[in-house]
Design a protein that fits this description.
The chain has five helices and five strands, in the order E-H-E-H-E-E-H-E-H-H. The protein has 139 residues and is α/β, with parallel strands linked by helices. The relative contact order is 0.15.
């Protein structure tokens, strides 16, 4: 019979918009306790208040993985429309090297119209975004 393993992770979204001690401390404690994964989100605008600040998730992920020792981490979910697939692959491999192989990548098709409008990023129709997502997964 095969043993089933339970994996435990945390999601500490940057809903205050800013990297802070609480977020850092939560990741450090989860790392100390042996949690498997830690997650942030990939939004360019603050989800609680569109006029409030929001720091970039991949940058925060880099800081947190550099501070921790064993927890694996990523973003739930990286918007495929925000970054070219080759650039994202380069970012992820760099962070993976910094963290000694602990970077996880979750990809999605993107959806929040306001983010795309404010940052001048095209938001193609869903059918096209799904095709782009498939392409990005191959990269």
């Amino acid at each position: 019979m095969t043993e089933k393993q339970v994996r435990v992770g945390i999601k500490v979204a940057q809903m205050t918009g800013l990297y802070n001690e609480g977020m850092r401390d939560a990741w450090l404690e989860a790392d100390r306790l042996g949690f498997d994964t830690g997650w942030l989100h990939d939004h360019l605008l603050n989800q609680n208040d569109l006029s409030a600040p929001e720091e970039e998730g991949w940058t925060i992920l880099t800081a947190l993985l550099a501070l921790t020792k064993q927890i694996r981490g990523g973003l739930l979910v990286t918007s495929n429309t925000f970054r070219a697939p080759g650039l994202l692959a380069k970012m992820a491999t760099t962070i993976d090297r910094i963290s000694n192989g602990r970077c996880l990548v979750g990809l999605g098709a993107g959806w929040m119209e306001a983010e795309h409008e404010q940052y001048g990023i095209p938001l193609p129709p869903l059918k096209d975004r799904v095709r782009m997502l498939d392409e990005a997964c191959q990269v």
